[in-house]
Amino acid sequence: MFDPVAFSLFLLAAVALAASPGPALLYVAARTLAGGRREGFASSFGTALGGLVHVIGGAIGVSAILMASAEIFTALKLLGALYLVWLGIRTWRTATLDLGPVKVSAAGTRRAFLDGVVVEALNPKTAAFFLAFLTQFVDPARGDVALQFILLGTISVALNTSADIVIALCADRLRRRLIARPHWFRRLQRGSGALLCGLGVALAFARRPAV
Q1: Residue 113 placed within a domain
Q2: CA–CA dist 155, 149 (Å, integer)
Q3: How far apart are CA 10 and CA 120, in angstroms?
Q4: Residue 211 domain-assigned?
Q5: What's the domain range around 102?
Q6: What confidence tens digit (pLDDT) does each residue in 180-190 have?
């Protein structure tokens, strides 16, 4: 269903983005420190389910846009690429996050899971990111658009959740190291921002697929 080159690019970008430190990873780390490993796992699975809500919603929306107009679909892909560039610049410029205030209290695994679902499902930035990122690798000439979007989204969510679980496993040690070496955290954030900018520019100037 997917072009091998485009799918390889997607995997490379998705893995790099999943491994980049950000608010979600810090939240999982803080939840783990407050309530233990089980709460960290529960919050990770909760954010995964919340992310899948955006994936399904995005798949429905992209399919509707394509059915309405192939030209609008192509314009959406271009706007998505430009959004990635903007997001990369913003990530680079705001790579000064103070890790100290990221604190939560223990609440039990059920509450941690539900909090993760609600926080992620109601986050409009997550919806915007999935729409901008995943649409770049959807090719109407290669099959059902909604199915492509869901498959790519599920892979992306799985990678993000895997990173969250790793953080939950070593939250205490990793978080203390990040706090002690904030310059490393800023470098990782800026690396993530540069990746988003480069990906967005490459996709914006790439030959648009026939729709």
Answers
A1: yes
A2: 10
A3: 22
A4: no
A5: 4-11+21-205
A6: 666 666 776 67
Q: How far apart are CA 192 and CA 199, in angstroms?
A: 11
29 in any annotated domain? yes
Span 3-35, pLDDT tens digits: 888 899 899 889 888 877 666 777 787 788 778
pLDDT(179) > 80: no
3-state class percentages of the chain: helix first, strand second, coil last, to nearest 5: 80, 0, 20
Are 33 and 106 contacting, i.e. CB atoms less than 8 angstroms apart? no
Instruction: Quote the percentage of the chain above a pLDDT of 90.
Output: 22
Task: Give the Cα separation of 151 and 6 in Å (integer).
Answer: 14
Task: Confirm whether 210 is domain-assigned.
Answer: no
Domain count, the chain: 1
Structure token digits, residue 207: 């030959």
pLDDT surpassing 50 at residue 209: no
Measured CA to CA, the distance from residue 95 to residue 126 in angstroms comes to 19
Between 63 and 106, residue with greater pLDDT = 63
* 136 contacts: CB under 8 Å, gap ≥ 6: 77, 80, 81, 84, 199, 203
Q: Which of 113, 87, 69, 64 is nearest to 17 (CA)?
A: 87
